[in-house]
Amino acid sequence: MNRFKDSEHLLRVTGVFLAGIVLFLCLRAWFVPKSFGQYGHYRADSITEIAALPIRHAGHEVCESCHADVLEVKHTGKHANVNCEACHGPLAKHAEDPSIKPVLPDTAVLCARCHEANSAKPKWFPQVVTAEHSQGLPCNTCHQPHKPGLKDTDAKPADSKTADSKTAEAKK
Amino acid sequence: MHFIPAANFTYPNEIELNWSILVVLYPFITGLVAGAFILASLERVFNVEAVKPTYRLALLTALSFMIVAPLPLQLHLGHPERSFEMYLTPHTSSAMAMFGFVYLWYLMVVLVLEIWLDFRHDIVLLSRSTTGLKRVIYRLMTLGSQNISPGALRFDDRAGYTITIIGIPSAFLLHGYVGFIFGSVKANPWWSSPLMPVVFIFSAMVSGIAAVMLLYMGTTKLRGEKINQDCADTIAKYLFYAFIVDFSLEMLDLIHRIYEADESFRSLDFMVHNSLWIPHVIIQLLMGTLTPILLLAATQLMKLPPVTRQRMYALAGSLTLIGIFAMRWNVVIGGQLFSKSLLGYTTYTVPLWTREGLLPAIALTLMPFGILFVLVKLLPPWPGSGPSAKLGGLHAETSGGRL
Questions:
Q1: Residues facing A143 on adjacent strands
Q2: CATH of the domain at B139
Q3: Considering the entire predicted model, what is its pTM?
């Protein structure tokens, strides 16, 4: 012991550090989930947990089986390749039980999500500055969501004729 | 987010800058830690008498900034509690995860231990002379050992010396890592360069030396004492040398980029001439590098009265810190202002109040000074102010902590 007379305090620090390491190892044993590292650097149980989550999207084909009419319209327009649930949201519950009626999307929010002008979007993609373009009207006043080309002229609200030509002019 | 209307093409994930001013702050703060520590170590290893008055101050400065260093990142990422998982389930192929251990090693084994050994004599004496809560704190800090025999103090000195030797490569690792992280992003031509870690280390030394010099002069003035001219001169000389190396390396990087002129060059060149013109060319290079180098060179070459020299040091030091901050800014923000398509650019304006805004950044910058204030109250680093120095014992003539 005499040999350590003058370095004994350093042994105390070492003791404190060792205590810290032991505490850390205990915490580690406590916190790290049991299945961690079974397959890789993650918690193996998470796979079964995620697999057990309820399915929320039904998929395009399922919607088609009951809504052939919408599909027909959609196929003829530019939204042909946009999935139903990309606009309507996850509807697996509705597909299983049609009596659960889905809420129809609000076009002012929905359409801007994809079509709001942004220089990061490829040039070919149709985009508008919605605030200027729609002049506060819902997009489906002039566009059909399932076939986004303009609605028939006679289907337009009376006042939108001028608005229409204005935007058309503004765009030139 | 705003874009330059003339921008050609920017990928969607590049419109918004994800690495904000907080990520600028992080390398700036770790740089100060590494720089202050390297200064202290050089003083100790090469036993430079003149700069002894700053030795302990440099160590405490390094510790204060080290404690704050991870906070900008945690505020930036959110969920600070998750950073603990880096230690629980370390991923050996992740440089960032491994760095967590470097940080911990540096904080606990290098800084805390070295400071403890250096101040132990004072701590023991203070634990005897103080009362109340202070006494309890000092008692705890002694870890129950009251041994301040000459033998024990000599042992402390040798142990401290060893830790300093280990600490130097650790400090290089600490800040070299930050440069490494940027330098190894091969998709980003503004960052990707093997010179990056080296440039970061030298700029860290520059900023750390400047910070300790300013803190030394400032605190001495505040305490109403006279600045030790020899000390100020010597630190300024170190700052000058470190700056020359740092500047040469940065110029080497620049010339290499210009000469190599790879496919990214036009894009980066455009950026430097436009959105980075003020932060890079004006603030970093002219104001923050060339001006302080010229000021320091003047103090080296000309015979100037001490007061003039001190003022020039203060000015050069402040400009240096601004310049190094600008360098971090230009690396972190600059690397995100241009598109990887090399065709488009975006812009960044610092928000004020938000989580990653200017005010949190300022608060984080001030925090180390608050910690330093407390540390300095607890462990007075001033030459001749600790109880051991007053006692005239072993440490009297070596309040710098060496034998």
A1: A150
A2: 1.20.1630
A3: 0.79
